[in-house]
Amino acid sequence: MARLNNGILGGFVGIVGNLEGYMLNGRQIIRSRRKKTTKPPTEKQLAWRQKMVQTHQFLGAFTDFVKAGFTYATTGKDLTPYAAAVGYQLKHVFRGEYPNYTIDYTQARLTEGPISTEGIDAAVTIQGNKLIFTWTPDLSYTHGSDRVMLLGYSPVLNEAVYKLCGERRSTGTDVLILSDATWKGKTIETYLSFISENGIKCTNSIYMGTLISMSFS
Fold this sequence. Notes:
Layout (H helix, E strand, L loop, with lengths): L1 E3 L7 E5 L2 E6 L2 E6 L10 H17 L3 H7 L11 H12 L1 E2 L6 E2 L19 E5 L2 E5 L12 E8 L4 E5 L9 E5 L9 E9 L10 E7 L5
Antiparallel strand pairs: 1-2, 2-3, 3-4, 5-6, 7-8, 8-11, 9-10, 9-12, 12-13
C-alpha cells in the first residue's frame, strides 16, 4: 500500500507496482522495487554484510553522537549523517579477512568537519568511574566558545557514555562519568571532538586511546 502526498499526480510513500517511494532529507525518492533473489550470496556479499552488521552494532551504541558529528559533512547532500558515518567506517576501520574482521578503533571517525584541532594537545586519564579529558584551552574569539564532544565506548558491553555539548573549548577540561559498575575491568575506547556553539561545524574526532577502569567509585 502506498500513501499519496500531493494528489494523484504527486509523489507517494510506499509501493506501487514495481516502484517504491520514500522520503530522504525532505526530498521525494522513487526507485525500482528491489526483487528478492533465490541465488546464494557470494563470499563478497557475505563479507559486506558482516561489515555492515559490525558497523551498525558499533555506531548503534551512540547514534546521536555521529548524527550530530556528520551533520555539517552531509549538508546539501542526498545522504543522512548516520549513513555518512557508516560509509566512513566501512572504508577505513576494518582489519583482517572475512569472516574474521575486527574493528580498528584507532581509525574510527565519529565526527567530521572543518574546524582545526592543531595544537590541541589533548589527553585522557581515568580515576575510578571518571574519564578526565584535558586539552590546551583556546581563548580565541573564533573557537573559544566551541563545545567539547566526549565519548567512551566499551566493545565488550557494546555501550557508550558520551557528551554532545560539554564544556567550552576555552575551559581545557571536562569529565565523563561511567554509568555503572558493569564498566569495571572493561576496555574503553575514547574519543574527543569540538563542535561550534551553534551545533553546525565541528572538528574531525580525535582517538584518545584505550583505558581500563580497575576501580569504581
